[in-house]
Amino acid sequence: MIGRSMLAYIPVNLANIVVSFGTVVILTRLLSAAEFGRYAVAIITMQFAHMAIFTWIEAAMARFQARAEKEGDVAHHLKTLYSLGAGMCLFASLFFAVFYYFIPLTGPMKTVIGFALASTCIQVFFNIGMEAHRASHRIKRYSLSFSFQTLLSFSLGIILILTTPLREIAPFIGIMIGVSFVLIFDLLFMLPKMKGGKFSRVKTKDYAAYALPISLSLLLSYALNSADVYLIAGYMGEASAGEYNAGYNLANRSLEIIFVWLAMAVTPLAVSAFEQDGAENSKSIMRDYGATLLLIALPAATGIALVAKDAGFIMGESVRDNAVTVMPLIAFAGVLNGFINYYVQRAFMLSGATKSFAWVMLPPFIMNIGLNLWLIPLYGLMGAVYATVAAYSLGAVLSMIIARRHYPLPLPIKALGQISVACGLMSISVLTMPWPEAWPDAVRLILKAGWGAFVYGFACWVMNIANCRNLAQLLRTKFSPTRNNDSAGDIKGANDIEGAVYE
């Protein structure tokens, strides 16, 4: 079930990969370290603003769309959420205008933050539609719309950097144009579904009670992820913030793509199973999900740590030297972050105990800020890294303990042990291999990654970790030019919910 849904989201993740790595590869070359630092601060500010004001609406769509379809209440459901989006957009525009006027900044930093905040008001309507498509298992529509918008926005931003004096402002103008273009076509599809629907205050209260705590918890989690950039900029300057963000993005974003990919595939399945059959059926999905997350993410983090120095050529020279030093530990912090936000958080989501998750993230957030204030003056960029790892470790332990009080969340301990052994074998094989220093970094990176992946894959196959042999069989069947009737029949009848994904 999970394997097929994962395959359906490959186009979205290819687009995310292009943009994520393109941001590091291209922007760190086109922009100076200070310009990239201002861009990083602006993109983080945009995300903070979006989570604080809009994310609760998107979370409500993701959680309640399946219920609305089950109860035949889709028109009222959609009309309520889109109306809330419009109202919050108006509020945000006024709030951002006041904030922009009084913000104690001048020059390029203030300007780029203004454009970043403006872009998030447009994104909310696009995101509401995308969450509706995912929750309704309209994967092809979601995949095409999201992928095209992502690539269009990024491409326009690059073109504007090259052809105008906009510099770090250009990517945000690209976002506004790209989102607006795709949004027109998405609204043409969504508006008829709202026909006859009315705004519901009762639904608004239910949605807010469920989703506002999620928004708060995501805000705290993102603060764990990114607030240190503000402190680095304050203590060490915009250029240092750009260096840290480049290394952080290359390591953490690589892992986040994996987590987002799997979450896209599994969350709608888990919600549908929970709504239709209760906790027990969703528990079996979550068990496979947790093992699959570790199966893919933990070796990816290990690989990033092993090739961090060789991967430095990916980044521009203005940020490269310091950026590669933060990557190994940030990679493992990224695994903890992803496991909290894309696995453990689903237990709070399914059980409805979203307020508890918000409180769980508060101690790690406070710890992270305190450690950053203490360690950055002592250790520079690595001080921020140490603070991040410590805070995520605390967050992982607390969230798992509290989550299991509300939902029977499976802990993939056996899979973790087996995967750790396989990652250890991979590390030993890469570190003991005599890689000539005279070889170009790109060649060493490719060979190390390929050799490590082979050793890890072989170890997983021997131990059949997380039933990986079944996933390999599914991949062969999916991409085989000739499929026999038995295989096709097996896949077609796998599961009613899974079949709905492809309708």
Automatic annotation (TrEMBL):
Tell me, what's a Pfam family for it? Polysacc_synt_3
UniProt entry keywords in alphabetical sequence:
Cell membrane, Membrane, Transmembrane, Transmembrane helix
Q: Where do the TM regions start and end?
A: 7-27, 39-60, 81-103, 109-130, 142-163, 169-189, 210-237, 257-274, 286-306, 326-344, 356-375, 381-403, 415-433, 445-466
Write the protein's name.
O-antigen/teichoic acid export membrane protein
Q: Which domain of life is it from?
A: Bacteria
Q: Look up keyword Acetylation and say if it applies.
A: no
A GO CC annotation recorded here is: plasma membrane
Question: In what way does this protein cross or attach to the membrane?
Answer: Multi-pass membrane protein
Whose protein is this, by species? Litorimonas taeanensis
| Localization | Cell membrane
